[in-house]
């Protein structure tokens, strides 16, 4: 009888210890789920740090993949921003994020169902059907693209229509386009050129929506135009390098040093993964000199320097693996090829100096500028080809090459004050990168309409 009470007192103590153990285990697991969850198997490290998706949702930005030449960290790296820096820089070692390889679908890149090549043709002056809207009628017009508002008097750039050689583009129909978008999210992802295409699409679409049924919600990272009666949205996501970088602030991104994580897409893909129609671009930002790679597993902030084309190759590889893993028949993905610039007038008018400043007509005849880098285009082509039918390509490069007249030049808002010396030489500060609206990006969207 004396031992019995002693035995009974042990059970509450054991239960208490067991209860503490369970609580500790639950808390430990919850913390790990929010950090990087590592599941070790032979020769593999499976990683998933996203609370937005399961392991199939994002294989590039901390998701299931095979890693052969580096070890992923258990603690998520500090996000890159404009204050990020490298403690030291070394030459690129050739290391790649070796995600589980995928096999391309049978056949080449997705071919458009129509037999006609809509990207081969000529510009036709047409002041009866174009422009498709007026600059002053679009309340969402950007001051960077509103050329007439900022002093451009010749308006011929607005009246050119793209005419394929052996067929016709479907006539633009805003109501039909809204029906295609009913219940869907159309998202443009990329840099300021893709933002220009987004603004073009909003200007093309907004006029038929009553003022109390349309809403624009600009945000730091994602801007959204929404049409309530169609339960549809047209959105723009700022992601100039596709992967995470220190230039991901859509306003304050003029940095002397570009730093990116070639193995991290989560910052952007967590937004774009929910869209129904995706329109990507990437090119211009890779032509601003070398970039620095800061891998997610690098703890000492040692960066590797690589040329722009090499950095783009790594970013495109990451993007392609996301597309391969996440795109199914319910989601449409488009990739817009490089938008050409016109900085060297001597290319289309031999012996001349200057650039796109004061150009009023398209280029006649076949033209290919040096700023449309063929080696980069070939790299992009290889990436898109192995994705097979999962990506549609909007090949806007050649048709846009002819439009030396379509850039803002000096007719835009400049965010920095221009000195008298610069004002005396307009060509010195002409914007020969972006495009006036209405203008060339409207044609890109007519092509998008053709293929949706």
UniProtKB/TrEMBL annotation:
<dbReference type="InterPro" id="IPR029962">
    <property type="entry name" value="TBL"/>
</dbReference>
<dbReference type="InterPro" id="IPR026057">
    <property type="entry name" value="TBL_C"/>
</dbReference>
<feature type="domain" description="Trichome birefringence-like C-terminal">
    <location>
        <begin position="170"/>
        <end position="450"/>
    </location>
</feature>
<keyword id="KW-1133">Transmembrane helix</keyword>
<protein>
    <recommendedName>
        <fullName>Trichome birefringence-like N-terminal domain-containing protein</fullName>
    </recommendedName>
</protein>
<feature type="domain" description="Trichome birefringence-like N-terminal">
    <location>
        <begin position="115"/>
        <end position="168"/>
    </location>
</feature>
<feature type="transmembrane region" description="Helical">
    <location>
        <begin position="12"/>
        <end position="28"/>
    </location>
</feature>
<dbReference type="GO" id="GO:0005794">
    <property type="term" value="C:Golgi apparatus"/>
</dbReference>
<dbReference type="Pfam" id="PF13839">
    <property type="entry name" value="PC-Esterase"/>
</dbReference>
<dbReference type="GO" id="GO:0016020">
    <property type="term" value="C:membrane"/>
</dbReference>
<dbReference type="InterPro" id="IPR025846">
    <property type="entry name" value="TBL_N"/>
</dbReference>
<dbReference type="GO" id="GO:0016413">
    <property type="term" value="F:O-acetyltransferase activity"/>
</dbReference>
<dbReference type="Pfam" id="PF14416">
    <property type="entry name" value="PMR5N"/>
</dbReference>
<feature type="region of interest" description="Disordered">
    <location>
        <begin position="43"/>
        <end position="63"/>
    </location>
</feature>
<keyword id="KW-0472">Membrane</keyword>
<keyword id="KW-0812">Transmembrane</keyword>
<comment type="similarity">
    <text>Belongs to the PC-esterase family. TBL subfamily.</text>
</comment>
<keyword id="KW-0735">Signal-anchor</keyword>
């Amino acid at each position: 009888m004396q031992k019995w009470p002693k035995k009974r007192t042990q059970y509450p103590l054991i239960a208490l210890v067991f209860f503490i153990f369970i609580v500790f285990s639950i808390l430990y697991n919850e913390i790990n789920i929010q950090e990087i969850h590592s599941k070790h198997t032979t020769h593999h490290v499976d990683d998933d740090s996203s609370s937005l998706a399961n392991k199939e949702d994002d294989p590039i930005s901390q998701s299931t993949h095979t890693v052969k030449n580096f070890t992923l960290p258990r603690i998520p790296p500090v996000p890159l921003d404009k204050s990020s820096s490298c403690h030291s820089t070394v030459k690129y070692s050739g290391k790649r994020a070796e995600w589980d390889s995928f096999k391309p679908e049978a056949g080449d890149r997705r071919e458009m169902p129509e037999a006609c090549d809509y990207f081969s043709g000529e510009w036709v002056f047409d002041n009866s059907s174009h422009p498709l809207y007026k600059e002053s009628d679009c309340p969402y017009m950007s001051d960077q693209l509103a050329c007439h508002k900022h002093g451009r008097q010749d308006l011929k750039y607005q009246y050119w229509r793209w005419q394929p050689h052996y067929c016709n583009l479907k006539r633009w129909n805003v109501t039909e386009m809204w029906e295609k978008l009913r219940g869907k999210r159309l998202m443009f992802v990329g840099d300021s050129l893709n933002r220009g295409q987004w603004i073009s699409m909003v200007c093309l679409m907004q006029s038929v929506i009553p003022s109390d049924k349309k809403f624009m919600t600009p945000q730091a990272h994602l801007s959204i135009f929404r049409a309530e009666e169609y339960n549809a949205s047209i959105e723009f996501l700022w992601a100039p390098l596709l992967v995470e970088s220190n230039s991901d602030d859509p306003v304050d991104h003029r940095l002397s040093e570009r730093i990116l994580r070639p193995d991290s897409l989560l910052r952007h893909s967590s937004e774009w993964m929910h869209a129904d129609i995706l329109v990507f671009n990437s090119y211009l930002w890779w032509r601003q000199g070398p970039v620095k790679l800061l891998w997610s597993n690098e703890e000492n902030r040692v960066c590797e320097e690589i040329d722009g084309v090499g950095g783009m190759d790594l970013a495109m590889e990451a993007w392609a693996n996301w597309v391969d893993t996440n795109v199914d028949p319910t989601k449409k993905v488009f990739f817009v090829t490089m938008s050409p610039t016109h900085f060297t007038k001597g290319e289309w008018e031999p012996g001349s100096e200057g650039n796109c400043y004061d150009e009023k007509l398209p280029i006649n005849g076949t033209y290919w500028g040096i700023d449309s880098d063929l080696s980069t285009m070939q790299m992009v082509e290889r990436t898109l080809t192995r994705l097979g039918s999962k990506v549609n390509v909007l090949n806007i490069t050649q048709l846009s090459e002819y439009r030396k007249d379509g850039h803002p030049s000096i007719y835009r808002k400049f965010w920095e004050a221009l000195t008298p010396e610069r004002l005396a030489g307009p060509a010195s500060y002409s914007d020969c990168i972006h495009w006036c609206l209405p203008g060339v990006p409207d044609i890109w969207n007519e092509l998008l309409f053709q293929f949706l």
